[in-house]
């Protein structure tokens, strides 16, 4: 009888210990899974900013040979930068939802790698709420399709860009609201935590590249 009672006591103790440690295990497991999803989303942001900056560095002011003070096609430069970044975000296999991108910035960087004050163009999300269709600026050069973003503030006109020495750079920054995929955010909120706002994290990534010099 004593052996049976002792065995039952140990079994009951094991159940209690397992019940106590189970929430910790679940939090760790959900945390690892959520981190994997977040890293995947961030990788897409990195690729998108890199592609946008590459296009901006190549187009400079839109002239054929990047000649300074040539504004022939300058109006098409920024829309093509946004289109390049958006193309990565919307590509097959990308986990990013364009509707969760809060904005894209195009900004100037001086020869020391410092962002030039006030030389920044902000593009904001522009989507039809009822249909989910893009309602932003048209994509050049055919101007038959729209972007999911529309230009807002413009403080760095593409016609003023030049790759001559001292070489300045162009930066592209994307801000994105990552929403939790697992129940981790909801569990933390339910327990009274306020670390995450409505079960989401604001991510941001930027890439800077030097403007290409003009051809001789």
Strands, helices and their partners?
Elements: H1 2-59, H2 77-89, E1 101-109, E2 115-125, E3 149-154, E4 169-179, H3 184-190, E5 200-210
Antiparallel strand pairs: 1-2, 1-4, 2-3, 4-5
Explain this structure:
The chain has 216 residues and is of the alpha+beta class. It has one domain (2-210). Helix content is 36%, strand content 22%. It has 3 helices and 5 strands; from the N terminus they run ααββββαβ. The chain has helices at 2-59, 77-89, 184-190; strands at 101-109, 115-125, 149-154, 169-179, 200-210. The chain has a 5-stranded antiparallel β-sheet with strand order 3-2-1-4-5. Helix 1 (2-59) runs antiparallel to helix 2. It is elongated and about 85 Å long. The N and C termini lie far apart (99 Å). The relative contact order is 0.18.
Distance between the termini: 99 Å
Number of strands: 5
Helix fraction? Answer: 25-40%
Beta-strand percent range: 15-25%
Q: Summarize the helix and strand pattern as letters.
A: HHEEEEHE
Radius of gyration: 25 Å
Runs with pLDDT <50, length 5+? Answer: none
- How many domains is the backbone divided into? 1
Query: Count the helices. How many?
Result: 3
Structural class: alpha+beta
């Amino acid at each position: 009888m004593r052996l049976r009672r002792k065995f039952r006591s140990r079994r009951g103790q094991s159940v209690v210990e397992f019940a106590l440690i189970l929430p910790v295990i679940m939090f760790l497991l959900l945390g690892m899974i959520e981190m994997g999803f977040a890293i995947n989303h961030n990788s897409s942001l990195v690729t998108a900013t890199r592609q946008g900056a590459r296009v901006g560095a190549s187009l400079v002011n839109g002239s054929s040979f990047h000649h300074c003070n040539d504004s022939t096609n300058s109006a098409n430069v920024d829309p093509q930068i946004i289109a390049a970044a958006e193309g990565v975000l919307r590509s097959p296999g990308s986990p990013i939802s364009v509707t969760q991108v809060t904005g894209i910035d195009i900004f100037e960087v001086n020869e020391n790698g410092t962002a030039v004050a006030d030389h920044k163009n902000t593009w904001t999300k522009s989507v039809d709420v009822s249909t989910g269709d893009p309602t932003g600026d048209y994509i050049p050069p055919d101007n038959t399709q729209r972007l999911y973003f529309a230009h807002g503030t413009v403080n760095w006109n593409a016609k003023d860009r030049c790759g001559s020495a001292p070489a300045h750079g162009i930066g592209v920054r994307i801000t994105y609201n990552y929403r939790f995929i697992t129940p981790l955010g909801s569990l933390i909120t339910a327990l009274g935590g306020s670390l995450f706002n409505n079960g989401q994290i604001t991510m941001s990534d930027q890439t800077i590249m030097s403007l290409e010099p003009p051809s001789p």
